[in-house]
Amino acid sequence: MQIDRRRVLIRLARFSSLSAAVVALTATGTAFAAYNVWTGEYTLTRQELEHAVGQRFPATLRYGQLVSVELTHPHLLFDPATNRITTEVDAQMANLLLQGVPIKGTLAISSSLKYDPAQRAVLLDNPNVERVRVDGMPAEYGEQLNAIGGVVATQVLNQYPIYKFKPEQLRYGGREVEPGAITVLPDGLKVEVRQR
Fold first, then answer.
1. What is the pLDDT of residue 5?
2. Rg from Cα positions in the chain
3. Does the CA dihedral 150-43-30-26 come out positive or negative?
4. Which residues form the signal peptide (predicted)?
5. Which element (helix H / strand E) includes 22?
6. CATH top-level class for 48-163?
7. What local confidence, expressed as pLDDT, does residue 23 receive?
8. Which CA distances in Å does 128 have to 37, 109, 164, 180?
9. What is the reported pLDDT for 138?
10. Fewer beta carbons within 10 angstroms: which end of the chain, N or C?
11. Per-domain residue ranges of the chain
């Protein structure tokens, strides 16, 4: 078996150029998706994904004239076993009519992921409330809190873009490529790209 030396040299040159670009971007502190020329995959880091989700918060939602929910401090948890990402946020709920002390807690919403070609973006999809923890809240209010959490999940995170590809990221070697399978890793995402 003879190795095509020219192909190997071209790949090494491309890899060297990519490595130089990665070093330059790292030195400037810019977040980026790293492309692996050998596997044909982009790797998205926890840092850049949390930055993207952080753009959506703080968020304040009102339900009629009764309840206000303020969401802050998002944190991502990655679950490779279910291929889902969980967004955990601090929640503060207040009854606007009673003007009492706001109730504080946390809300965890897990989402699957999908690629939207129109936006060239990886989106959070099909969010589900995993848990609602409220300090000092009696258990009988759990159902109402889960209902509020469901509305929050739909309004705040459903179809939210967590990474947008630049047009040049979807061209390789003069050919157009498109994202395929999205895999959740212990500390980020892997997005496979394939030729159109």
1. 53
2. 21
3. positive
4. 1-33
5. helix 5-28
6. alpha beta
7. 37
8. 35, 5, 23, 23
9. 66
10. N
11. 5-45+165-195, 48-163
- Where is 153: in which H helix or E strand? none
Q: What gap in Å lies between CA 43 and CA 35, rounded to an integer?
A: 6
pLDDT on residue 18:
41
Q: How far apart are CA 105 and CA 137, in angstroms?
A: 9
Helix (H) or strand (E) holding 10: helix 5-28
154/143 Cα distance (integer angstroms) = 17
Q: Dig out the tokens for 179 from the structure.
A: 């994202």
41 sits in the region (left: phi over 0; alpha: psi -120 to 50; else beta) called beta
* Per-residue confidence (pLDDT) for residue 172, from 0 to 100: 81
How confident is the model at residue 1, as a pLDDT? 46
Q: What angle do CA 152, 74, 113 make, to 5 degrees?
A: 70
Q: What is the DSSP string of 82-114?
A: TTEEEEEEEEEEEETTTT-PPEEEEEEEEEEEE
Strand extents, DSSP E, the chain = 34-36, 41-45, 59-63, 67-79, 84-95, 103-116, 121-134, 161-164, 171-172, 175-185, 188-195
Amino acid at 132: V
Structure tokens at 15: 């890899």
Residues in the chain with pLDDT values less than 70? 1-32, 98, 138-142
Q: Which residues pair with 84 in a beta bridge?
A: 79
Structure token pair of residue 53: 């989700």
